[in-house]
Amino acid sequence: MCGGEGKRLWPLSRRSFPKYYVPLADGESLFQKAFRRALRTSTVEDILLITTDVNKHNALKQARAIIPAFPQEGLIIRPDGKETFATMACALATMIDRNASAESILVCAPADHVIHDVASYGDVLHTAALVARDHYVVIGIPPTEPSSDFGYIECDLQEPQVVTRFTEKPDRETAESFIASGNYLWNAGFHIGSLETFMREIRLNEPAAHDIIAGGMRSVIKNFDALPEKSIDYTVAEKASSMRVVRATFDWDDLGDLASFIPARGKEQRIASFDSSNVNACVDGKLVVAIGVSDLIVVDGQDTLLVIHKDAVSKLSKAVDTLRKEGHPEADHHFRGYRPWGIYEVLEEGTGYKVKKITVTPGCASSLQSHSKRAEHWVVVSGIAHVVLGGEHRLLHPNESLYIPIGEKHRIENPSTTPLVLIEVQTGSYLGEDDIVRHEDNFGRA
């Protein structure tokens, strides 16, 4: 499950680049770590990446950085909106389209967890899959505090695998009583069961959704608005008739807010503190000077600056919702644009001009495109560019440049094995990303 709204870690993450895809200290993202874990329990052909249209290229590109031959068919695009039940619906519908047997096991796994002990993870998933032949299975994490950010699984004291109650995100007081009782586990967000088990539970609790899913992905896409809005936990898990829990023996962290995610990035921050305490910053390449403040998180998103008290991180999602309603593009979109062929960064823009740094991945090419309101000037910084301009082909090397007039068809390709970096200067009356006509495209966008 790798879609997401990008709100809890804003501005590091955005709707166009959720936290799953943000690189950590070792250069890999949470998504890539989850993908590697999936490879321990499933064949490549049986892995489904359920995401939204805006993130499909992120998911496919990062998966293929690990398995270059990962099939396009493994990428399942779901409409925007709705929570994780809709994601499960897409997975089940895909299994039905592929004529999976009723006994086939589905593991719905989040893509945003940190798990270091992958060997123990594999053992737990193997055990869960065996139990899931007859039951709806969840993974339980021994709780460390009475948090209201997680669901709670009440276990039978005589039969530890038997779930007597599933409560999604209780209030603090209720969570404290759960912890005191000693027979509760946190819900880790994994939902495991056979195709038959999941469809039975959905039929019992959401019969209309069951009928939609039974028709396969075309039915799900056509009737997406009629699916339940809420998560798997509220829609199915809390009402499940036969649930079992397998206790996790691996370490686990969901990095659910900025306070936990920033240290996990592993990037050293320069903070000079005077009469201040407990100031956490994510401001790459800049010195942060804190004077007379405490318990703050400071995040430089290049196009945004967030200053938030550590006790207010739970309010960040609602703040981002308000920014969206007020029409701030930064609520959803990053100064860095991720495309299937590479990355662009906006370095500067003003009236009538915009300057970008563009990096093209080896072996990739942009679409053959044209713009009706802007001209472009390209200067190669490093690498080799194969350029199509009009009907002509040419190679550009470092320090060489090219002018692209308004309306001219053009394409850039990196034919080498190293990244191609160029500076693009746009000039014109309108410089929005939607001023583009794609005439041909290797990624199906034309």
Overview of the structural elements:
The protein has helices spanning 30-41, 56-64, 84-97, 118-131, 172-181, 195-205, 207-214, 217-222, 232-235, 258-265, 316-325; strands spanning 49-52, 75-78, 105-108, 136-141, 152-155, 163-167, 184-194, 243-247, 270-274, 277-282, 287-291, 294-300, 305-309, 336-339, 342-350, 353-360, 368-370, 374-382, 385-389, 392-396, 401-404, 410-413, 420-428, 437-440. It is α+β, with helices and mostly antiparallel strands and 446 residues long. The chain folds into 3 domains: 19-247, Spore Coat Polysaccharide Biosynthesis Protein SpsA, Chain A (Alpha-Beta Complex); 267-331, no CATH class; 336-440, Jelly Rolls, CATH 2.60.120. Strands 3, 4, 5, 6, 7 and 8 form a 6-stranded mixed beta sheet that branches. Helix 2 links the parallel strand 1 and strand 2. Helix 6 packs across helix 7 (207-214). The longest helix is centred in the N-terminal third of the chain and has 14 residues, at 84-97. It starts with 29 loop residues before the first helix and ends in a 6-residue tail after the last strand.
Mean pLDDT figure: 89
Count of individual beta strands? 24
Largest sheet: 6 strands, mixed
How many angstroms does the end-to-end distance come to?
27 Å
Structural class: alpha+beta
| Name given to the CATH architecture of the largest domain | Alpha-Beta Complex
CATH 4th-level superfamily of the largest domain: Spore Coat Polysaccharide Biosynthesis Protein SpsA, Chain A
| Proportion of helical residues | 10-25%
- How much β-strand is present in the residues? 25-35%
In CATH, the topology of the largest domain is named Spore Coat Polysaccharide Biosynthesis Protein SpsA, Chain A
Helix tally equals 11
